[in-house]
């Protein structure tokens, strides 16, 4: 396993140096050997729905190319974390990334924060239909603005809340510092509920919970469980208030290097892997819930309908602020499309 490169210099300069050092992963290497390796970085554990879907992708690509193309996966943010994986892709230090949709806003794609709106979606199938249709296609096309190519969406279902107290309605959030992804919508959601949002990379979340830098967080249970957060959080509240989706992204520069037959091979393998990821997400989150219950490490709370209504009510300004930023017609169009697909 490669060790994480140390970067004493400013991050951008360091990434450039790494990009140069790694630049020959596709094509002919120093000794004339053909090294067709796709370097793929992500931030979660291998045994999560995302980790497993990407391993599935690697396996299919290698099988179908009869070993000619290899996918080298760097999980758990071991190479690049939330703050630098997109930059690493831009600079050619990796060839593919699979960030959560919440991480596209800060790098120039605020429209992706749509998926962070609390209580916008009530069933995961509806979101999947939306991402397969025009809305999803337009979002992926938009990535071309920065020379990127979106290859597809998949997800890890719905997020739940954790802290050292139940979080079931707005008054429970008062005074809580909640770790959030770098999404304006999620930060507003926490503020609207009375909490104080703290943006932290995923890889630093468990430690921040352990040391008391933050009091709580939100994530699907498979991420919660595989990071061992149950050891540092006494309460989980099953609010299913928000969606956690991903997009697999490559750089057009890298993609254009591939023969079209290889592009097809990679796309087909990825489509299959993303469907596999979606198919196992529910089971993994349910398995994590059973494991949490059996471990007795964490108390599990289920909000009442009234408590959920209060959270939904408090979320309305977050929807309004997003609509104002993106233009009200755009969000109305998405909501109409969701209804049409229901
Ligand atoms: C992920 O599933 O990719 C991480 C989500 C997070 O940062 O909370």
List the helices and strands and how they pair.
Elements: H1 11-22, E1 37-41, H2 49-64, E2 70-74, H3 85-90, E3 96-97, H4 124-132, H5 134-142, E4 148-163, H6 170-173, E5 177-180, H7 184-192, E6 196-199, H8 205-211, E7 217-219, H9 221-226, E8 235-251, H10 252-257, H11 260-295, E9 299-301, H12 305-326, H13 328-341
Parallel strand pairs: 1-2, 1-3, 5-6, 8-9
Antiparallel strand pairs: 3-8, 4-7, 4-8
This protein binds succinic acid.
Succinic acid binds at residues 43-44, 50, 100, 156, 181, 202, 219, 223, 244.
List keywords for this structure.
342 residues, alpha/beta, D-Maltodextrin-Binding Protein, domain 2, two-stranded parallel ribbon, 13 helices, 9 strands, disordered N terminus, binds succinic acid
Tell me what you see in this structure:
- Helices cover 46% and strands 17% of the residues.
- By secondary structure, it is α/β, with parallel strands linked by helices.
- The strands form 2 sheets. Strands 1, 2, 3, 4, 7, 8 and 9 form a 7-stranded mixed sheet that branches. Strands 5-6 form a two-stranded parallel sheet.
- The N terminus is likely disordered.
- The structure holds succinic acid (SIN).
- Succinic acid binds next to loops.
